[in-house]
User: Fold this.
Amino acid sequence: MTDPRRTVIALRAGGWHPGAAKGARPQELTDQLISDATMVLCAQTPPAHLAIDNHMWVAEGDEQWVQGEVGAVQLADHLAGATGTTLVPTVAVADIDAAILTDQPTPGALPVDIQVRVGKLADDQSPVASPYPPAVDLSSPDFLGPMAARFQVAEQSVAAIRAEVVARGCRPRRLWALAHISAPYRFAAAICDRIAVTPGVTGTRSEILHELTELTSAAGSRPLIYADVTACLGETAVAARARMSDLDERVGEPFRCDTEVVVGSVDDLARWCTETIAAGFDGVRVRPCGRADLAYLVRSFLPSSDRTDHR
Assistant:
């Protein structure tokens, strides 16, 4: 099974399946996120990193959804634990400044990295009929051109802020990025210390690793590469499928996301992770669909990994 030191648990307020968050208000989702993070940090076998996403979905009635934002950095600053877990809150590039990028260790506080997100939610989010984005042609020049320009501007902005931190004689925090295709890969290879990707959705494991190897070599960087996966877990695969069906019913349509989805037992997830590490990735980032899935990760997946890898 996967070494917990190579595992990241990635949290989103309410869970990564919108159905898990339905019926809760924004403050309730934020409170649950804090509770979930505390459960991970107090686990018998904590992960190496705990990522905290800054987006969430809030249901407005039965058929409308609004996307909200969480102050992930502020939340991370108030989390505590005696573990060696590093927190990784997500921050929009537009919100990044020298203070956020400066590594300022505080006695008793957990270390913090930063995941950069290119793009920021508008202040006024209109309700939408589905929490899932519309299909996009990833090969269209009309899509790729503006995307490349956005990521180039973001790269220059973050690099300048990082240089400012170094010029002050301070140590910058490690940077992460979630990347799906070439423009984000290039951005991440140029400025990030850790890159999370989505094998199986935007390319095979070998294709993604090959492209990133070329880009990081050209950039003179050596970031660690993590593979993201979303998990819906149960005691058996049948139970997990029933749970996914229930979550889908709450939303009114099948689950769609930007990663591969493991719907099965903890052993099924462990096999996916083991195969991914064996393919050449440095680690995995697991996104639980909801709180029940997080409980399986904390109580079964991480302890089993520890017993298997370090006995």
